[in-house]
């Protein structure tokens, strides 16, 4: 919503709200588009344990920072665990990743669990 100061005939400094016209000709609040653009899209993340030769598909999630941090902590303890790739679909990344790398899928949470 935009606030403007009215001049001439109204009290000085009085504010009034107006709506911006939308491309389709209707009225649209300016702030309504901001919430839609900032909404994160859920995705699934492949977590791989290279020492055991297995992977798990974790998610859906909108932020993988906890998983990346947990993988980094396991690497500090000499385990070869990686996160990625990711995708919006559950079945496609699992099938492609398993066949490409010839490793076995395990249930979610079997390799590691992030704190928090």
How would you explain this protein's 3D organization?
By secondary structure, the chain is an alpha+beta fold. It folds into 2 domains: 36 residues, no CATH class; 64 residues, no CATH class. It is built from 3 helices and 8 strands; from the N terminus they run ββββαββαβαβ. The strands form 3 sheets. The chain has a 4-stranded mixed β-sheet, with helices on both faces. A two-stranded antiparallel ribbon has the order 1-2. The chain has a two-stranded antiparallel ribbon with strand order 3-4. The longest helix has 12 residues. The two termini are 37 Å apart.
Q: Which structural traits does this protein have?
A:
116 residues; alpha+beta; 2 domains; four-stranded mixed beta sheet; two-stranded antiparallel ribbon; 3 helices; flat
Shape: flat
Mean pLDDT, all residues = 77
Share in β-strands: 25-35%
Strand/helix succession: EEEEHEEHEHE
Distance between the termini: 37 Å
> Which residues form runs of ≥5 with pLDDT under 50?
1-10, 14-35
By secondary-structure content and strand pairing, the structural class works out as alpha+beta
Oligomer: single chain
Radius of gyration: 25 Å
Helix content bin: 25-40%
Number of domains: 2
Short account of what is shown:
The chain is α+β, with helices and mostly antiparallel strands. The longest helix is centred in the middle third of the chain and has 12 residues, at 65-76. It has helices at 32-37, 65-76, 91-101; strands spanning 2-5, 15-18, 20-21, 27-28, 43-49, 54-61, 81-87, 104-106.
């Amino acid at each position: 919503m935009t606030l403007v100061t009215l001049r001439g005939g109204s009290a000085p400094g009085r504010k009034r709200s107006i709506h911006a016209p939308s491309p389709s000709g209707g009225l649209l609040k300016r702030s309504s588009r901001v919430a839609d653009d900032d909404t994160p899209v859920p995705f699934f993340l492949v977590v791989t344990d290279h020492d055991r030769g297995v992977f798990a598909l974790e998610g859906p999630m909108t932020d993988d920072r906890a998983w990346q941090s947990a993988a980094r902590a396991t690497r500090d303890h000499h385990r070869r665990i990686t996160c990625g790739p990711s995708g919006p679909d559950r079945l496609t990344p699992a099938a492609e990743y398993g066949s490409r790398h010839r490793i076995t899928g395990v249930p979610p949470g079997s390799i590691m669990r992030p704190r928090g």
